[in-house]
Q: What sequence folds into this?
């Protein structure tokens, strides 16, 4: 029912709108997806928006937000053709890249970001420094902001003594967590790519592009 707010208020004033069987009152807030709304005795369809789930391969140089006060490029610029407005789940900082899930499903977003759910995330890291001692330190107990971190899983890809690449899987989602862990270990991150979240892999998705998640990927994210 595409009517203006003024027209809707007129209908309410005339007693022509009922919400869950009761006459609607001006100023009353209702959830149009949950409430039973009738106009002149005719049930109005729910305005529930289609739930959309996409994976974006975020490039370096994009801010993980919908709008940036400094005028920087945002991830929202890359998903304008999705068809509905989708929001980033979690964050990847300006200089990080890789898998970023975006959706308009607030329930799933909360599930993926709330600490109690502990969705694992894997990153491919390229770093400089004393890699022998640094990689060993990463595997030891560590704290951030006075709170202990769960031991990560580390798989070394290359190790040349002063530079290394490795996969690291973490359980938390602290601010700049991988970079800060590497700093504690005496390593300087030169590139950081998120490759997996909750069992869903980035795969060969082209940088800066997005695709819809499959039903099987959604089940993984939901822990089903």
A:
């Amino acid at each position: 029912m595409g009517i203006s707010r003024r027209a809707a208020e007129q209908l309410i004033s005339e007693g022509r709108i009922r919400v869950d069987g009761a006459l609607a009152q001006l100023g009353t807030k209702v959830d149009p997806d949950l409430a039973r709304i009738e106009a002149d005795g005719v049930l109005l369809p729910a305005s529930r928006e289609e739930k959309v789930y996409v994976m974006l391969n975020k490039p370096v140089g994009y801010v993980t937000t919908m709008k940036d006060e400094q005028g920087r490029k945002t991830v929202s610029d890359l998903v304008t053709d999705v068809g509905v407005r989708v929001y980033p789940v979690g964050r990847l900082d300006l200089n990080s890249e890789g898998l970023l899930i975006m959706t308009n499903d607030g329930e799933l977003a909360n599930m993926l970001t709330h600490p109690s759910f502990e969705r694992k995330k894997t990153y491919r890291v390229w770093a400089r420094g004393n890699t022998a001692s640094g990689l060993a330190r990463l595997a030891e107990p560590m704290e951030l902001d006075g709170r202990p971190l769960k031991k990560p899983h580390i798989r070394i890809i290359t190790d040349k003594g002063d530079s290394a690449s490795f996969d690291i899987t973490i359980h938390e989602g602290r601010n700049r967590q991988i970079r800060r862990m590497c700093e504690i270990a005496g390593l300087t991150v030169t590139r950081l790519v998120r490759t997996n979240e909750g069992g869903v892999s980035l795969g060969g998705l082209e940088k800066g592009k997005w695709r819809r998640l499959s039903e099987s990927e959604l089940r993984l994210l939901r822990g089903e």
Notes: Helices lie at 5-13, 106-113, 131-138, 177-184, 215-222. Residues 8 and 175 are 45 Å apart (CA to CA). The mean pLDDT is 89. The radius of gyration is 23 Å.
